[in-house]
Amino acid sequence: MQKLLTDPKFTETLAPQFMQAVLDEIRGTRADVQEVAKKIELLPGQFAALLDKLPNATRPELVAVADRFDIPQPEGMTDTALRRELEKRAEDWRALRREIAAIPETMKQLSNLKGAAQAAFDAGRFEEVEMLLERVHQVELEEAAKTAELRAETALLRGRVDQAFTLLSSAADSLRPIDPLEPARRRILQYFAILRNHGLRYGGSGIARGIDLLAPVLSDDLLQADAWLWGAGMNSQAIGYQELGSRTGGSEGAALLGQAVEAYRAALEVGTRADHPVDWAMMQNNLGNALSVQGERTGGPEGEKLLGQAVEACRAALEVLTRADHPVDWAMTLNNLGGALWAQGSRTGGPEGAALLGQAVDAYRAALEVRTRADHPVQWAITQNNLGAALRAQGSPTGGPEGAALLGQAVDAYRAALEVTTRADHPVDWAMTQNNLGNALSEQGSRTGGPKGTALLGQAVDAYRAAQEVYTRADHPVHWATTQNNLGAALREQGSRTGGPEGAARLGQAVEAYSKALEVRTRADHPVDWAMTQENLAEVYEALAQHDTCTDPAPHLRAALAHVEAALEVYDPEHMPYDHGTATALRDRIRAALAGGA
After folding, report:
1. How many Å apart are CA 98 and CA 264, to the nearest integer?
2. What residues does each domain of the chain span?
């Protein structure tokens, strides 16, 4: 060692490197210790106490509770998002805690039955012993099933859906000795809802696993003995397919919606109006919803046919679900009818389309007579948002003061919805409504001259930017891209009507927004949206060429031509004649401008 310390080569080269390595190791260890110190080891009873004070919990406390629930990567979530997620888990935890607290009462009942059986046996009353022991067996089976249910719900609290599925399947099958149909009853009437509700509440595979849970009993010939139960099972399966299909795009989503429609129709063959009028009406309403989503996603005559069938199904439901007897369900069905009529009217055009849109507005306004803000605030806000969409669809093709008034009513409806659909409580719906509000304001502003129109366009830009606070590329890429595209349109209109550097800056921001949209709206994944945004870029480059700040329009016009020609590669003149026509006219206009400048 002494030799090394006196060696100049060691002291000049290796020693400093060694010392630096030691220092780095110390710093790394200190950082690890500091990171561990940020985490909290919860003491007995502290977990429950923290669930009651989540709004005021510190960041380390929130992360510690999230770790108990196995929430993945809570460190990467904002405090607001983490609190919102934990509030849902806390609500479910309290409900499950109440169920666990009821276990001793069941044990007491079982003990009493066994005591009675012992007394009857000692007295030689053997028939009574047999009856009591049979009841003991039933209670034991039911208790074992209940224990499995509680274990499943505990697994769901931690996001373990597959484990819950296995436990619920075993619980249902264990009850076959009580009644051969009991497994089917449990799967259809109870356990499907547990998995489905988890999927609706937290996302993930809950809905799909709920459908899997139904499969064994729906294919069992034994279930045919109870037609009503079989129909209820088909209805549950249809609900699952519909919810999955509504969330899934492309051919896979279309196939799931088709399976939902088939299952509803099968259930309606059993749950007839004569025997089960309310169940029949609710299934008609659900069928109408599935057909409406199918129709919106399907073009041409086939889509129109599906939407017509959706309207028929909702109207059939309303024959039973009257306002007098079933006011809440009546309002729900009217809201759904409005959606089908809106989709029909939006694609029909002309006087017939206007009439259908008018019927949609009437349906939404009628629903709002029951879905009041005071009694049903969330449903009221949903219907206000839907009413805004129908009014905007009415106002868009309508000129003059009448069209302007309809667009103004649409803006009012969206603003009303936002009074309830707040960012804090309903962030995704809030973002959707902000985007819709932006669309209505943008259209209003485009049709309004002077400072008033400029102000409306500014409000539209603000609404789109607000929506993007939730509609991020990471979490909602498709909605993010749509909102970027809409933002680009408002900025383009602002820039076109504003002179000088400010107007040019707005047009530049429009180019930036459209370009960002194309990062998600690729030709491979979203060809029609890609082409639409390409055409929008062509228009904004044309506007830049025509702007009063432009000294050389040729580069802008060449960029515009490249974008519109790209759009025409997708716009098929046979299947997309309108889009092909507008893009062709734009291309010809740009070519003429380039030729004139040359």
Report:
1. 36
2. 2-38
